[in-house]
Amino acid sequence: MILVDLDALASCLASPACLVTQTTSGLIIGMLLFLVAVGLTLIFGVLKVVNFSHGAFYMFGAYFAMTAYQLTGSFALAILSGAVGTALLGLIFERAFMSRVYGRDVLMQLLVCYAFVLIFDDVVRMIWGPEFRSMGMPAAFQVPPLFIAGGVVPPYYLLLIGVALAAAVVLGLGLARSRIGKVIRAAAHNPGMVSALGINTGLIYGGVFALGGMLAGLAGALAAPVRSLTPGMGFSVLIESFIVTVIGGMGSILGALIGALLIGLIRSFGSLGFPLFTEGLMYLFMVIVLVSRPTGLFGKEVA
Amino acid sequence: MTRTRKPGISRRSTLALMGAGAVTFAAPWVARAQAKTIKIGMPTILSGRVAQLGTSSRNAVMLEVEKVNAAGGLAGRQIEMVIRDSKGQPQEAARIARELVNTDGCEMLLDGEASSGSFAVHEVARDLGVLCIHTCSEASSLTADPKQHIPNAFRCVRQGIHDSIVGAGYAAGIAKAKGLKKWATCSPDYAYGRDTTGEFVLYLKKFAPDVEIISESWPKLFQPDYTEVVTKILQAKPQALYSCLWGGDLTSYIDQANIYAMFTQMEVFAVNMADYTALTVVKNLPKGIHSGDRYIKTFPPTPENAAWGDAYKAKYNEYPTNWSWQNATAVMFLNEAVKKANSTDGKKVAEALTGLTIKCPFGADGTVTMRADDHTLVGYAIGWGTTIPQEPYVPDVKAGDWKTIFELEAEWKKSKGYT
Questions:
Q1: Residues of chain B predicted below pLDDT 70
Q2: DSSP assignments along B222-277, one per residue
Q3: Nearest-CB residue to A230 (from B248, B277, B284)
Q4: Domains, chain A, ranges and CATH?
Q5: Predicted complex ipTM
Q6: A32 vs B contacts (CB less than 8 Å)
Q7: I need a surface site. Which of A291, B167, B299, B348 has the fewest CB within 10 A?
């Protein structure tokens, strides 16, 4: 049994082929994680609630995409319905339930979220059945992988990284530059004042929650062709998203991006050098960040 | 509960209850032996991640029980199945098994638990002395270890060690023919994954001594993403890969490895691939994955097996699983043993079961045997083949040789100190 295999890691770092393969592999894991984590961090930054049911949106995104793909055969429509469907679900969930527990005890918020983790899992079980499902890779991407500098890169993963990056850029610029972005930032900073200025904060809150849900749904839809779909599939993704937000700093979008990419790279290179300790490496890194910077790498941006 | 009842309960009824309880607990199956119907209890997993397997077990049992009942029942007594959900938790399985016998009056148990729960039910059978047939646990030690041996328990299931011997023999043949020396393994990181992979590698090296394992991966059970494992294996450039991932984990792995074109770069041996639950779910099943048989209606290639698979599909609108054939076989064994004993008495049936050979659609030669010395199933159809993406999925299964299995199994038992 090999515990630490530094030779494998060193020889990989010396080979461009291996570097390309492992880096893209880390980017894929990281970018999907980013989409889920950024929604989590956004909701926390503005609404000040930790959405423990966030993994369910990832799950619904995947199931919506699978169903749309089976009905229409169009991959674009599948992705779209994954994102739009979860956005709607997020809006309804926030208006009907989460909005009632703002400012309440954290325990209360946690209980409501946890209840919905169970409810959402059972809803999926009722609609799509308890057994695992698979969406299948669209024909357009059933092609041999690309070889870049000798490294293996599947074309589908290029699309995946591209879409996630685009989402990151749009989100970042939108929040920094647009009028709505300004209002959202203001609402995060001082909701009372924003409300007094005649802006409907309920709408802002609902919108932010829907946006967060949509990003998680997008991640689920993008992951659906390569990951098996089961009730409860959101759980492990949620745990990793929490690690990402803790590392990056709760409420920081840049932090979520950097944190997610770091986790992705730790997983891909860690599995070479520390085959039995890849999971542990993630947590170890989180501990180091927490000890040296308790607010996370970009924690200062927390409003 | 007793506290809330206190004011309302009379001394007389308390005494009556205690009396009834004493009779029930003393020897419930004797007390009710005169009942016209015979109750058979079955704890199995009907909810959670492997619910599909438990459901398919229940389905198969009911399919066979209906046939037995239509033909007059067990020694003239109609079978009534009492099936309960253990949720896959060993302590719950044990509790249910005890309750089925003591409270529900079941005279026999079919233990539809996975390995973890079956050992707990086994202890209940040891304690109560009730006839118990394990129908799902593949863990070899359940019957191979003499410490586990009790006269009233049997295992009607394929066995891990048999699969490893046959799989490694098949893989070694291909390794020699194609010159596959560098191997990688990728299996889930828990007892089943590590044991099965270890045994497979042991026999592979025995049959093909120049095989070398150059890379091992142990992803977590139910891990959503295997990309880093896939690329790690690609870096190691093995000529062949062994995996005992199963169910949704296996289908995820295939989808993710597929887009790296892994299946064109090495021979893949995935023991749990040829199960309808996985075969029918994977949308882009690569051609030529080597797999062991789990349940497939074309192996053994007999009309009896095909008819059984079709009858199951017609009734339940899905194909049977590996757990289905094992549970169906258990009911067939019970039926034949009761006929032989001409009694439904647990002890007599157990004696009749020991060493019993019956006709069975899942037998390698049309029969299966409940081996006398360790009370486990032998002679069942076991083999490996390669997959194609549509029915019959595994067109040509190479049958394992039971003579070799018996020889190596005996050696293995000796090495473990079991004999």
A1: 1-35, 49
A2: T-S--HHHHHHHHHH--SEEEE---HHHHHHHHHHHHTTTHHHHSEEEETT-EEHH
A3: B248
A4: 6-130+153-301 (1.10.3470)
A5: 0.86
A6: 225
A7: A291
